[in-house]
Design a protein that fits this description.
A six-stranded mixed β-sheet has the order 1-2-3-4-5-6, sandwiched between helices. By secondary structure, it is an alpha/beta fold.
């Protein structure tokens, strides 16, 4: 196991690891925010049984209130609403049967934990590190800087400038004393299942041998105190750099 992984074990097993980690990953991602005016308009369409308008209003929101395999198609092609009246009516009947209160609760439901965790890490980066534009990032020679930009801009920079060959945007692209660092951040509240696959994604990036950047897996959670778990054993046997987000600043400061 790498030195930074050993430092994480010490932190997780002997220090106030959870207290500090809460600053990065608060437990409650909170309800989604939707303007009261929008909710009132949705209620009106619901009560008037204006099916097409209701569907369009709900598709404008981040979260559709019910799970239905056909919703993503309608979201991508709004013209399909007029072409598929039976499908639209079927979805509306499910909504009407649920009642407006349940529909509203579905609209405002907290984000799924995996998505929320990724956004929490991003917000923590913005509060604790200097985020800069692509031009300033390239020019940076001293200190620590984190690349700021859209998902596409960051992915393009990773693949065009750093030649990493990634299929999705990494959780952060940093620069420390002129050296590039790319990482994937994961919080594992349990071991096994989807949580284990999240770790695999982080380790895959950290083991990428392409391009001109340090690659790291930033991993937090219960696996650090479960040496018998598959996830801990993967880290223990890995030849890549894996450590807690709480050590990120110290890691970057050590790069020269």
């Amino acid at each position: 196991m790498n030195t930074w992984g050993k430092k994480t074990i010490e932190l997780a097993r002997t220090k106030d690891y959870l207290d500090k980690l809460y600053d990065i990953y608060p437990n409650d991602p909170g309800l989604r925010e939707v303007n009261d005016r929008i909710l009132s308009a949705i209620r009106k369409s619901f009560e008037n049984r204006d099916c097409k308008q209701l569907i369009n209003q709900l598709l404008d929101l981040e979260k559709f209130p019910i799970k239905d395999s056909y919703v993503s198609f309608l979201r991508e092609d709004r013209n399909a609403i007029a072409r598929n009246p039976k499908t639209v009516r079927r979805i509306c009947e499910v909504l009407y049967k649920a009642g407006f209160d349940e529909v509203r609760d579905g609209i405002l439901a907290p984000k799924e934990s995996n998505r929320a965790r990724g956004q929490q890490f991003g917000r923590w980066l913005k509060k604790n590190f200097k985020l800069v534009s692509i031009d300033d990032f390239i020019k940076s020679k001293k200190g620590i800087a984190i690349l700021d930009g859209s998902d596409k801009q960051i992915l393009d920079f990773s693949n065009i400038q750093l030649n990493l060959g990634l299929s999705k945007m990494p959780d952060f692209v940093g620069k420390a004393n002129g050296k590039y660092v790319v990482g994937e951040a994961k919080f594992l509240s349990a071991t096994g299942g989807n949580q284990g696959r999240g770790l695999d994604d982080a380790l895959k990036l950290a083991s990428n041998t392409s391009g001109k950047a340090y690659k790291v897996a930033i991993v937090d959670g219960v696996l650090w105190i479960k040496p018998s778990s598959q996830e801990f054993k993967k880290i223990e046997n890995a030849s890549v750099t894996v450590f807690s987000s709480l050590l990120l600043k110290k890691f970057l400061e050590k790069i020269d």
